[in-house]
C-alpha cells in the first residue's frame, strides 16, 4: 500500500510499540498523520511506558504469542500492521522460549491479517547473516549464530510460506533487517542498548570507554530515525520480501569513541579487554542496493551526524 495522505484516518497496529524502535515509529506516525489511530500491542517485558509519553492511542498489554487478536481487534478496522515485538535480548539461551515467543507471535498476527490481507511490515535482523564478516546483501545465505537470529530466520520463512499460498500471493509482507540501531529512546534496554550508548555512559561517568581488543571490530551503526524511515518506506512500497536497513557503512568501535570524544569535548583513550564471546560479530555492513532501488531508502545519518544528533539529545535530557 502506498502510505495514505497525511489527513487520512489511518488505523495502524504497532506491536512492540513500547520498545525503542517501535515507540519511535509510533511517535513519527502520530506526528505526521494527525488523524492516525494507533494501537500498540506490547506486554512491557522489555519496553518502557516512558517511551509512550504523549501517546494518543490505545495500548493492549498482552503477550502476542498468546493473545486471541480477534477478541481485541476487528480485522476490518486495521489498515496496516507494523510488527516489532520480539525478545530482543540476544544473550537469551532458552531456545524454546525465544522461538516460541517470537515465531508464535508472528503466526498469530499473520492468521489475524490473512483474511483481509492487511499489509504487514515486520522487524527482522542482521543477526540472520551470522558471523559472516562481509558486506551482506539479502540474497546471501542466512547463517544465524544465536537463537535470536534463528528466530528471525523463522519469521522470514513463515512470511514466505504464507505468501506462497495460492490465494495470498498478492498480500504485502515485508521484512526489514535492522543492523545495529542506536539513538534516542533506547536507555530502557540496559545491557542490550547500543554500544554507542554504553560508551557514552562510561565516558559521561568519567571512565575510560571499554571495548574488546583492539577496538577495530566494525559495525553498521544505524540511527533509529533511519530504520523507522526504512520501515515506513517498506510499507509504502507495497513490496514483499526482505530489505536491509542499515547505514551502509562499517565503522569501528575506535571510530565511535573518537566521534564521542569530539561531541562530548573529552579526550578518553579506550581500555581494551579480552573478548569472551565466540559468536561476537567482527564486521557487519549492509548492502543497501535492494532497499535503495525497491524502497527508495537512503539513510540520512552517517556515524558523525548520527552521534552528533544523539549526544545533543542526551545532553539536553
Ligand atoms: N535495536 C536493534 O539494534 C535491532 C537490531 C535488529 C533487529 N531489531 C528488532 O527490532 C525490533 C524492535 O527492537 P528494539 O530495539 O526496539 O527492542 P525493545 O526490546 O526495546 O522492543 C521490543 C518490544 O517488544 C515487546 N515484546 C517482546 N515480546 C513480546 C510479546 N511476545 N508480546 C508483546 N510484546 C512483546 C517488548 O516489551 C518491547 O517493548 C525487534 O523485533 C528486534 O528484534 C532491533
Descriptive notes:
This protein is of the alpha/beta class and 317 residues long. It is 35% helix and 17% strand. The protein contains nine helices and 15 strands. The strands form five sheets. It has a seven-stranded parallel β-sheet with strand order 3-2-1-4-5-7-12, sandwiched between helices. α3 (95-114) links the parallel β4 and β5 (120-125). α1 crosses α6. The protein starts with 10 loop residues before the first strand and ends with a helix. Nicotinamide-adenine-dinucleotide binds at residues 16, 18-22, 41-47, 63-65, 84-88, 101, 105, 123, 125, 178, 180-181, 189.
Count of all domains: 2
Q: Walk across the major sheet and give the strand order.
A: 3-2-1-4-5-7-12
Q: What would you call the structural class?
A: alpha/beta
Largest sheet: 7 strands, parallel
How would you describe the shape? globular
Q: Kindly state the percentage of residues in helix.
A: 25-40%
Name the bound molecules.
nicotinamide-adenine-dinucleotide
E-strand count: 15
Radius of gyration: 19 Å
- First and last CA, distance: 37 Å
Low-confidence stretches: none
Q: Strand portion, in percent?
A: 15-25%
CATH topology annotation of the largest domain = Rossmann fold
CATH homologous superfamily heading of the largest domain: NAD(P)-binding Rossmann-like Domain
Listing every helix as H and every strand as E from the N terminus to the C terminus, the arrangement reads EHEEHEHEEHEEHEEEHEEHEEHH
Query: Count of helices?
Result: 9
- Assigned CATH architecture of the largest domain: 3-Layer(aba) Sandwich
Mean pLDDT across all residues, rounded? 96
> Can you identify the CATH class of the largest domain?
Alpha Beta
Amino acid at each position: 500500500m502506498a502510505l495514505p495522505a497525511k489527513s487520512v484516518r489511518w488505523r495502524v497496529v504497532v506491536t512492540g510499540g513500547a520498545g525503542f524502535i517501535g515507540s519511535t515509529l509510533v511517535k513519527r506516525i502520530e506526528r505526521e498523520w494527525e488523524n492516525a489511530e494507533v494501537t500498540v500491542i506490547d506486554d512491557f517485558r522489555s519496553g518502557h511506558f516512558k517511551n509512550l509519553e504523549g501517546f494518543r492511542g490505545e495500548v493492549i498489554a498482552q503477550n502476542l504469542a498468546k493473545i486471541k487478536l480477534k477478541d481485541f481487534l476487528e480485522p476490518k478496522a486495521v489498515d496496516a500492521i507494523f510488527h516489532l515485538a520480539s525478545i530482543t535480548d540476544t544473550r537469551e539461551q532458552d531456545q524454546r522460549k525465544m522461538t516460541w515467543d517470537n515465531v508464535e507471535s508472528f503466526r498469530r498476527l499473520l492468521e489475524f491479517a490473512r483474511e483481509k490481507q492487511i499489509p504487514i511490515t515486520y522487524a527482522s535482523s542482521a543477526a540472520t547473516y551470522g558471523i559472516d564478516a562481509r558486506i551482506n546483501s539479502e540474497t546471501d545465505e542466512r547463517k544465524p549464530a544465536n537463537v535470536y537470529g534463528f528466530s528471525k530466520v523463522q519469521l522470514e520463512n513463515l512470511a514466505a510460506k504464507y505468501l506462497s499460498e495460492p490465494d495470498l500471493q498478492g498480500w504485502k509482507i515485508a521484512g526489514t533487517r535492522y543492523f545495529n540501531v542506536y539513538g534516542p529512546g533506547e536507555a530502557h534496554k540496559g545491557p542490550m542498548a547500543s554500544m554507542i550508548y554504553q560508551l557514552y555512559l562510561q565516558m559521561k561517568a568519567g571512565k575510560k570507554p571499554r571495548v574488546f581488543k583492539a577496538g577495530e571490530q566494525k559495525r553498521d551503526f544505524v540511527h533509529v530515525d533511519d530504520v523507522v524511515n526504512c520501515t515506513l518506506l517498506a510499507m509504502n512500497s507495497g513490496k514483499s520480501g526482505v530489505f536491509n536497513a542499515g547505514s551502509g557503512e562499517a565503522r569501528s568501535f575506535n571510530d565511535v569513541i573518537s566521534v564521542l570524544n569530539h561531541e562530548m569535548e573529552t579526550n578518553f583513550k579506550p581500555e581494551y579487554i579480552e573478548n569472551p564471546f565466540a559468536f561476537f560479530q567482527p564486521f557487519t555492513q549492509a548492502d543497501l542496493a535492494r532497499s535503495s532501488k525497491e524502497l527508495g531508502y537512503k539513510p540520512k545519518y552517517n556515524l558523525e551526524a548520527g552521534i552528533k544528533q544523539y549526544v545533543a539529545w542526551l545532553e539536553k535530557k
